[in-house]
Amino acid sequence: MTLSSLIRLIALAALWGGSFLFMRIAVPHLGAVPTAVGRGLFSTLGLGAALFILGYRPRLGRYLWPLLALGVINSGIPFLMYSLAAQVLPSGYSAIFNATTPLVATVVGALVFAEGITRARIAAVLLGIGGVAVLAQAGPLEITTAVLGGMAACFVATVCYAFSSFLTLRLAGANAPVDMRAAVFISQLGALLVLLPALLIHLFLHPQAMTELQAAPLLAWSNVALLGLLSTALAYVLYFRLITDEGPQKALTVTFIVPVFAVLWGWLLLGEPLSLAHVAGGGLIALSLWMVLRPVAPK
Q: CA nearest 220: which of 81, 12, 35, 96?
């Protein structure tokens, strides 16, 4: 991995680590569905404004619908799933479960996309999973039906991310027919289009939700804005570029670092304590990253 890609990887981990914190603050005031819709809205508006200012006008033709569908898998469903999980799981836990994405991607790549699996890759992924498991011991949760539901929501999101990483490479990779800027924007638009009906259904089933949204504090709305503009719009620009430059497997290793940043932001901004479990888990994660990202001598 090049130095520029490594810098993007660290920046992306910091942004996605912050996303779980933003959701944890916003969801109790706004609800899961409105938070997910707000994230998609701010992300779409932010990317659209940036492309308009830069004078970029995408011409997609027959790739419009595939990119919209990609947005449903890559953003729409995961946004909703992680917002639902934020109702019952601490921000660090959602990030920890998100770190299983490379393992899921390894299985999906082998079964669906004919990707090869090496022993070194399996060992590195399992080591990374071990690292996030150690991190989980920093604050064990009582297993309840609600907690299991939150875990299941996180798993659905990781499966979506695993599939979308390979689809992104085919639609917006280095030799793909669609420009990366168009892919990022249209995919976010696709996420928003699938989330808006979910919001209408939510408001119909919970009429009091509109009153709760109007009474929500500015802090909640500002966290949704940061979630959409920084942890989504900017983050997906970095993520799509990583997939283009380094491929899905290496790009998805970012999920190993996200829990470290999620814990770090919790310590800095919420005063959550650090423990030896965080140090040990972070060390295992760093070792697994080195195993995945180290240069391989040509055969």
A: 35
Provide DSSP, 219-233: HHHHHHHHHHIIIII
Sequence-distant (6+) residues with CB within 8 A of 109 are 115, 117, 162, 166, 248, 249
Domain coverage including residue 143: 3-293
Q: Choose among 171, 179, 162: nearest CA to 255.
A: 162
| DSSP summary character for residue 177 | S
- Please check whether residue 63 lies inside any domain of the structure: yes
- For residue 45, tell me if it sits in a domain: yes
Residue 278 lies in a domain: yes
298 located within any domain: no
pLDDT per residue as tens digits for the range 168-191: 777 755 555 667 777 788 888 899
Convert the pLDDT of each residue in 197-219 to its tens digit.
Answer: 999 999 998 888 888 888 889 99
**Which ranges constitute the DSSP H helices of the chain?**
3-30, 32-53, 64-71, 77-85, 91-98, 101-112, 119-136, 145-172, 180-205, 209-215, 218-228, 235-246, 248-251, 254-270, 276-293
- Residue 117 CB coordination number (10 Å): 13
Q: Which pair of tokens denotes residue 118?
A: 């090496």
* CA pair distance 51, 56, nearest whole angstrom: 5
